Amino acid sequence: MTFNFLTYDSQIMGAQTKIMTKFFSENQLVDYQFVESTSSNMFTLLHFKTFGELSFVEYQSDTSEKINTFTTTNAYCLQIVLNGKSIEEGSKGRILTTGDSIFIMPSSRFISKDSVNCRKLIVHIPADFLLRTAREFGFFLSPDTTLLDAGVKPFPMTGPLFNLINDMLQQNPTQLGERAMVYYGKLLNSAILTMFKKPNSLSNHPMHRYIQCIHDYILSHITSDIPIDELASLCQISRKSLYNLLEREMGLTPTLYIRRLKLEKAHSDLKSNIHVRNVTQVALKYGFTNLGRFSAHYREQIGELPSQTLRASCR
Asked: Which residue range or ranges hold the HTH araC/xylS-type domain (predicted)?
């Protein structure tokens, strides 16, 4: 299982474990301590990369007698075992083998003993960023981390989530705008939330059910012209109540919310480049008849022009 770091902020080869502990501390990632069993313990690889509000770390060591203590107070962390085995110390005793992943919650402590040449990828996500994304994408996740599954899950070795992380690792952040990096980060957060959220973990608040209903209805009619009154009727509330609901819960008007979801689908089509001839085809598919406005709205939300997304997908 391999991710391709084409660009990175730091690369360290053949350093002692105390150097790695210092590196994590100085970069204020997490309280991550590597306990040496012998003075000769060496790390064979470390890659570090920041991408907007996220950071990625890939590391591998050459020793099997090593205890890793991982603690974070204000961030979520996705750990993926790319090679070898990682056994959690303590009562839970979770075991991660090649291809397994675990989502570590804020204020949680994960102590593990790794096998020889165990290699991991760690994705560090600030808690406030994940919670903002959850709200925007309709997960309605509260700071109560029990809504997320702390169990071991197989990480998909192919498909959208794997491809998204690989794409972020290969992109040069200095060549992307801030909006583009935020959008990439939100897509990754949404995919992680989908993977690790517990069944029936959505809030029971009735207004949240309305948002979920609106979200699902828009997606099922994403290529159609969706009247505002139709959404109000769907929820059996007044047009004014619909505006108040979306403004309070999403910070958007109904029109802007519909447009945002349509632009996300347009971005997905352009990026996947499946049966896409040109930008005009995609714009018209989702009801954007003014191509100039489509490009302007797309750039404002995604961080690049639709033509740039399409060109990148053809490389």
From this structure: 212-312
